């Protein structure tokens, strides 16, 4: 089967024209954090969800709010607390005394963009209600099932510094997130700019530059991005190396990995690679696309053993060694 790369390239160029507009609009409000913005776009166009980890005050909430503003989409922020109930999230049945009937009251999950703030502050039943909605793209209230809006993106944040009174997400549930993104502090220059922006008399706001229809069309275009068989094999090698490092000449890593990436890791790495090519306005995937997004796709899917923790090895350092060792096509 011959593939017309030029034709795909032209289609991708056409469908991805709004990316620069979107980036420019986001940059009015968010200073720096280019990686975070790119990861948000990968989640959005890859139809996946994002788990963000970073200390408070790094514009996690502002980022998703700005993305929603740029798209004229509905945004809801849900603050997760220990007393939150699944009904507070998905909605419930309310008895109407006037007509003596039960009516459905939809919860805040019915929006295009959901910010699940400090997801690790809520008990397991609330977390699983959110994760079910993320996976199934639908919610059941009483006996009725409702489809969620498209596009639907959940960005959950967790705070790495306070572990008291938190309910860490089980590993199997963390796997539902396409990406886990770690956010760091801005540079000195960026922070100066942020400070000036926030104390100015008029704080910039984002205005809608794309429609939700544009996003849905772009998602379809992502699937036509060409991925060579060599790249597919490279993705599989990276994921298999997290399971059986000894097959790739990394026997030294075996005692440090308790388990590696599931097939979801391979699927998400391939999809994220295609989106990376798309947002770089290219119709084909190159190894650099895979390498650029590998940490975000794999860091929450590679579990380290106690030996690794004792040696101060993290999943990141293991992924780094795998990326350095596995042959690049």
What does this structure look like?
This protein has 329 residues and is of the alpha/beta class. The protein contains 14 helices and eleven strands. The protein has two domains: 31-199, Rossmann fold, CATH 3.40.50; 222-325, Magnesium chelatase subunit I, C-Terminal domain (Helicase, Ruva Protein, domain 3, Orthogonal Bundle). 47% of the residues lie in helices and 15% in strands. The strands form four sheets. Strands 2-5-8-1-9 form a five-stranded parallel sheet. Strands 3-4 form a two-stranded antiparallel ribbon. Helix 1 runs antiparallel to helix 9. It is globular.
Short précis:
The protein is built from 14 helices and 11 strands. The protein is α/β, with parallel strands linked by helices and 329 residues long. Strands 2-5-8-1-9 form a 5-stranded parallel sheet.
Q: Topology, pairings included?
A:
Blueprint: H1 5-15, H2 18-29, H3 34-45, E1 50-53, H4 60-71, E2 75-79, H5 86-90, E3 91-96, E4 101-106, E5 113-117, H6 124-136, E6 138-141, E7 144-147, E8 153-158, H7 171-174, E9 179-182, H8 188-199, H9 212-224, H10 229-243, E10 257-259, H11 263-279, H12 287-298, E11 303-304, H13 306-310, H14 315-325
Parallel strand pairs: 1-8, 1-9, 2-5, 5-8
Antiparallel strand pairs: 3-4, 6-7, 10-11
Give me the CATH architecture of the largest domain, please.
3-Layer(aba) Sandwich
Strands of the widest sheet, in order across it, are: 2-5-8-1-9
The number of helical segments is 14
Structural class: alpha/beta
Biggest sheet, in brief? 5 strands, parallel
